[in-house]
Amino acid sequence: MKSVLIWGVVAISIGGLSINKWITSEEKAKSNRAAGNFNDSRITVKGRVISYETLTNKVLATGTVIANEEVDMKSEISGRVVQILFKEGGRVSKGELLIKLNDSELQAQLEKSESRKKLAESNEVRQRILFEKELLAKEVYDATVNELNSVQADIALLRAQIAKTEIRAPFDGVIGLKYVSEGSYISTTTKIATLQNILAVKIDFSIPEKYVNDILREAEITFTISGTEKKYKGRIFAIEPKIDPATRTVTMRAICTNTDGRIFPGAFANIEVVLKETKNALMVPTESIIPELKSQKVFVYKNGVAQPISVETGLRTDTKIQITKGLQPGDTVITTGVLLLRHGSPVTISDLE
């Protein structure tokens, strides 16, 4: 019995000590909370002090690169190729002879007509002298003049046909692969080669109709070519004056210098079009926005705690969102751990931008 009594006293003593320690710790915690000491429960976060920025509104689009000038070289007449005077992939100058067709028959006809012309000119001179002396009827002299004019017209026609046997470059550019060989017989539909001027390139793209009024000619674009990260700049110089009813988009054309020849026609382009700039915009990181049922909010750091603020948003970029209502310059917006925060949550800013 004595042992039982002794152990009972010991147990009661231990229990009393535990209760006393718990009460003491609770009182200490209450005292800490009353004194504003939250060090043991603070959430470590990052923040950003917001200020006015220049917001550039952009619209993204995709497009295709085309040559500044491009033409499929074809002959105006049919004939046999006797000379090919260009190198595949080489540069050519405007007016340079590229292809020569057989013109032997035309040259023979021209020589014959030249002989007829000399005879007609001699007849015209003799008959004009007789006509001026009133020794020849006017009708006879007029017939001679008409014959001379007819021969001259034939010569002009033959020279024009001979000129068509020479295919020349219509502009400076780079000529592509040839599709004919010397000795080939070509017609007016035969493709000889493609000539392109790529010292500058054009970019065709479309944007949604709602942005049309925000884009003007001479607006700047930035684009990248598929397979490379290098950014190129261009400017819009033409806008299609109608909206495509099927896609509700407007087609635009920009131009970019390409003196180094690194941009090839036919390439796929990812395009950014600058719409307008807002000088005094308050921007916050995208990750700081918390969507709610009918609104959005951010947490702002004030006096050591997090306070939720309802905000209205505007334009957005890849990493930021414009705040149009709810914040002021100088506010510290919490950018990390926002899903862990509640109204009045004690926080510590570890990194302030």
- Hey, roughly how much beta strand do the residues contain? 35-45%
Order of helices and strands: HEEEEEHHEEEEEEEEEEEEEE
Adjacency order of strands in the biggest sheet: 2-9-12-11-10-13
Low-pLDDT ranges: 4-26, 28-39
Arithmetic mean of pLDDT: 86
Question: What's the N-to-C terminus distance?
Answer: 73 Å
CATH fold-level topology of the largest domain = Elongation Factor Tu (Ef-tu), domain 3
Largest sheet: 6 strands, antiparallel, barrel
Helix/strand class: alpha+beta
Number of domains: 4
**CATH superfamily heading of the largest domain:** Efflux pump adaptor protein, beta barrel domain
Q: List the total number of helices.
A: 3
Morphology call:
elongated
Count of β-strands? 19
CATH class of the largest domain: Mainly Beta
Written description of the protein model:
β15 (296-302) and β16 (305-316) form a beta hairpin. The protein has three helices and 19 strands. With 353 residues, it is an alpha+beta fold. α2 (104-132) packs antiparallel against α3. Helices cover 25% and strands 41% of the residues. The chain has four domains: 40-54 and 279-352, conserved putative lor/sdh protein from methanococcus maripaludis s2 fold (Beta Barrel), CATH 2.40.420; 59-68 and 197-278, Efflux pump adaptor protein, beta barrel domain (Elongation Factor Tu (Ef-tu), domain 3, Beta Barrel); 75-101 and 167-191, OB fold (Dihydrolipoamide Acetyltransferase, E2P), CATH 2.40.50.100; 103-164, Helix Hairpins (Orthogonal Bundle). It has helices at residues 2-34, 104-132, 138-163; strands spanning 43-49, 52-73, 79-84, 91-92, 97-101, 166-168, 173-175, 185-186, 193-208, 220-225, 231-239, 249-257, 268-285, 290-291, 296-302, 305-316, 320-325, 332-334, 345-352. The radius of gyration is 44 Å and the shape is elongated. The model is unreliable at 4-26 and 28-39 (pLDDT under 50).
